[in-house]
């Protein structure tokens, strides 16, 4: 059986870092202040969050960015197009909106609450051939991209629209507050004195196809999964699962680890995650160390949308030959890792994007310039 390659041919996004992917990448490179302070989510507590600034409703933004990608790609026939959603929250924000407005659950439409409610909304708008939804916490859209690669490799579909999407929700913000991992200021991943993470919202849409359209096409070269199952919410302290996911992704891409030029780290800013991930990177890349940065100090942690947002960031790093910087690092926790604090102009061949989640489920993706 002929194995088809999977190419990212178009993408679009909206987040607290900008209403387009171009603005997103510029905000990262210029280390803009994009995270805001909020007192409305947690009683008598200030938390830093990443909120989209738009006059449009979240559902309208979702349709707008999907339509942009499809129209720019001249994709009108969806008979061979699969829709894949990656989300941690689903329609929870809509449920909360109705509940807090009415102080009652009676007007809540249960069909608009689950993860697949997003797919149903988009299928009505675009009549995709079929859909599937992933909800694996913070690896949701990374797993969606991995699945997209698989079905294209096996010639099951020619086109896959991957949508990573999560809206801000009281349930998630208060849930992370209960775990004592939220920060009252913009997060500082890998900084010794970090305080915690910033919950954020985002929509990221990527069109994956079995043929490249031009020299800007980015190949999904490899995907690696692991499950360390160390703890319900804590990663393995030595980064065993994270290291295994990266190793599996590099093996799947059929490349050497020495060819990786940049790692877009999961880097949430929490004590447990950052320490674990840095140990994993330092252990795996003991020679020819790639540059590493976390872009969550600009985007916040967009939960289920993080994998898709960071796939776009990784694609733009390859296309523009720019290693994105980390922000707010004064004292680096682990000096065995090569952190980029400023933008670095460097030709890149392959990059890794990491997404790790509760329950020890880990996903790493290798992206490369199409050949």
Automatic annotation (TrEMBL):
Belongs to the thiolase-like superfamily. Beta-ketoacyl-ACP synthases family. GO terms for cellular component: cytosol. GO terms for biological process: fatty acid biosynthetic process. PROSITE patterns: KS3_2, PROKAR_LIPOPROTEIN. It comes from the Bacteria. Pfam families: ketoacyl-synt (PF00109), Ketoacyl-synt_C (PF02801). Residues 1-369 form the Ketosynthase family 3 (KS3) domain. Gene3D superfamilies: 3.40.47.10. Keywords: Transferase. This is Beta-ketoacyl synthase. GO terms for molecular function: 3-oxoacyl-[acyl-carrier-protein] synthase activity. InterPro entries: Beta-ketoacyl_synthase (IPR000794), Ketoacyl_synth_C (IPR014031), Ketoacyl_synth_N (IPR014030), PKS_Beta-ketoAc_synthase_dom (IPR020841), Thiolase-like (IPR016039).
